Amino acid sequence: MIREPVYRQEEDYDQLPMGSAEDVEYSEELADHEDIEAQQRAAEADRRAAAYEGD
Asked: Has this prediction a pTM greater than 0.70?
């Protein structure tokens, strides 16, 4: 059975929740241990992505 894609009406978009990937300003002064660890993980991921040559 093949299903037809379901499309939302444009007026429904106003009722959707705001995305959680909002841009926020990072402050070292206000950073706690978890923030610092997250920054380190992000930097390591960036290095791995830059070095990745693909399959």
From this structure: no
